[in-house]
Amino acid sequence: MTLREPVGLVVRRPRGGAHRRRRQPGWLRRRFRFMTGLAAFTAAAAVGAGSFAVADDTPATEGYRLPDDAPQPGAGFRIGAVYQVSDGTLTYTCTDGAWSASPTPEATLHSLDGTSTLRHTEGPQWTSERDGSTIIASPAPASRATGPGGRPWLLLNVSEHHDVVADGELAAVAFVSVLNTSGGAPPGTPCVSGFDTTRAVRYSADYVFWTPMNPGR
């Protein structure tokens, strides 16, 4: 006796003896395509934003974001702390009837979280009021166009460390970026030697302190 399939009942048989893969619901396929595209976009944006760096989300940096084209040391370094000028001047000296090209800084810097204070003086050098640790820097081969007021954005290479205590506040700093400068341009009028000795000009700036990502290596 032969059994026949009921009329109207569709029976799906695997081809070639193999089980057919079950088709995923449409909403699930659309979600997968969306998440894949989002991941690809995020990766591309990260590559295209190579001129930006975001600091670790700590009280000392508060997620500080570098401006576009900011001079920075590159791979292998991270933003350790960010300080801003709360009160600062650049003092120009009159020599042979012209103002000096390299003014002397005198500024008080505060960290973004307000817990740390540095003194910025001639050198250029920075000294921690917390523990007395001091760094002295020299220009590194990276700068960009001047900011408002005529002062350039700079990358400075820390060449000397003077730590009063072990593991001082500035002990790990390797580079300093000077950014978002405002004011501080040389006086607009000529000087007279013997009469105009010095001229102090107020300024503001951000100082980004870079530390190695893997210190000691």
The general outline is globular
Strand tally is 9
Strand order of the largest sheet: 1-3-4-5-6-7-8-9
Order of helices and strands: HEEEEEEEEE
Uncertain runs: 1-11, 34-52
Helicity, as a percent range: 10-25%
Roughly how many Å apart are the termini? Answer: 84 Å
Give the structural class.
mainly beta
- Average pLDDT reading: 77
What can be said about the biggest beta sheet? 8 strands, antiparallel, barrel
Helix count, per DSSP? 1
* Proportion of residues in extended strands: 35-45%
The rounded Rg comes to: 30 Å
Structure description:
Residues 1-11 and 34-52 have low confidence and may be disordered. The protein has an eight-stranded antiparallel β-barrel with strand order 1-3-4-5-6-7-8-9. The chain is globular and about 80 Å long. A hairpin with a 2-residue loop joins β1 and β2. The chain is built from one helix and nine strands. The protein has 217 residues and is mainly beta.
Layout of secondary structure:
Blueprint: H1 26-48, E1 77-95, E2 98-99, E3 104-111, E4 117-121, E5 125-128, E6 134-146, E7 152-162, E8 175-183, E9 198-212
Write a brief caption for the model.
This protein is 11% helix and 40% strand.
List keywords for this structure.
disordered N terminus; 1 helix; 40% strand; 217 residues
